[in-house]
Amino acid sequence: MSLSRLRIALRSDLVKVTPSSSVVAKIWEPCTREVNTSSAQYAAVSQHNTKPDWNRAVSEAEKIVGYPTSFLSLRWVLSDEIANVALHLRKLVGSNHPLLKTAKNLIYNGKNNMQAWGLIVLLVSKAAGHSPEIPDMEQDKAAGVLHSQRALAEVTEMIRTSHLVHKGLVNMNSRRPIEEPDNMMFGNKIALLSGDYLLANSCTELANLRNQELVELMSSAVRDLAEAEFLGERDEQNNPLPSRPLPVDQREPAADWDCLTSPLPMAGVAGCARREWVARHVLAAGALLGKSCSAALKLAGHEPALQNKGYLFGCHLALAWQAFLDLEAFTGPEPTSFSLVGAPLAFTLEARPELYSYIEAGRKSVHDVDYHALYEAITAGNGIEQTKALQREHISRACDVLDSFPNCDARTALTNIIVAMHP
């Protein structure tokens, strides 16, 4: 099956339905300085006070690294196994299985497009350059990156995609009645096997790079993704719920993270809005992107100090990205639902702990939560402004890390992407 035929088939179906502890402290601790949103890196890409458009920023960045990275993973997707999955997806059209939404996100690009992760890894790779000792045969001179770095970008996308596919499983043992149980069970089988296939292929590709330290680093990122699913409480369908806010005098200071491959310390995280939000999204997103950027610099032969900066950049970018997504629900008409572990609600619950009674109503299912009451409380309080400040902070820190890289088109493209997310 050709690439174009597979994409048309999917569209027609789906349209129907650390380093040292001091480095880690820079992620955990709140920023005490004022964030300057008109810094040199912003001015360089924001001529005439015009903020870069997201789609244009991504499109220009893709040209810099050689070709649209949204199709990086299709080398595996075009295999017979996944082509058969596309045919089976037709049986799920009309059902409400989460796998359909995940598949649509793989095809239709947008600001929350998961496929941009490989693009970020390649841009960081090109911005940093590589050691002159690396043989010419290992270099993609046209794109300015190594063949191994391009393979790593594909691995990053596949790990991310497999995780999202696995998250779409429906709990068939829920006490709530399941609509169309046969379709849900079939969808679960497809999601489980598809996610396993993608993860297995990513592990094979990672092993082909023949770098033991790289394998250990990326394996720890997979561990972090799994650990994110066990942070805090969940409803019966494994939808995350925020922890009960702690009184100010009971909140613990941030703990150190001794090693990039060590588990993130969870002591004192639950009940502290900022720390819980950071921990949840570092595990679920930042660790994979940060460690992928660090691994790309390792492949290029850079010193550990620059590898650490790559890790920090990936983490801060992922956190800024997540804050942007959390804010989207509050930029238009009132939504029917929104993330219960998003930053706006986390800050609102911390300011008004009595609102946690609405969260307790959703322990069986998040559909039992009174979203309207929570939405009114969020818009009436400072949660949205605190989230914007949180996003600006991580944007500023990501730009600060970019200052460590040489001034080039890849660095400018990264800055354009960052500025396009600015609130």
TrEMBL record:
Gene3D superfamilies: Farnesyl Diphosphate Synthase (1.10.600.10)
GO MF assignments: prenyltransferase activity
Single GO BP term: pheromone biosynthetic process
Any single GO CC term annotated in Swiss-Prot or TrEMBL for this entry: mitochondrion
InterPro entries the record matches: Isoprenoid_synthase_dom_sf, Polyprenyl_synt
Family from the record: Belongs to the FPP/GGPP synthase family.
Keyword Glycoprotein: no
Name of the protein described by the UniProt record: Decaprenyl-diphosphate synthase subunit 2
SUPFAM superfamilies given in the database record: Terpenoid synthases
Highest taxon of the lineage: Eukaryota
Keywords linked to the UniProt accession: Transferase
Annotated source species: Leptosia nina
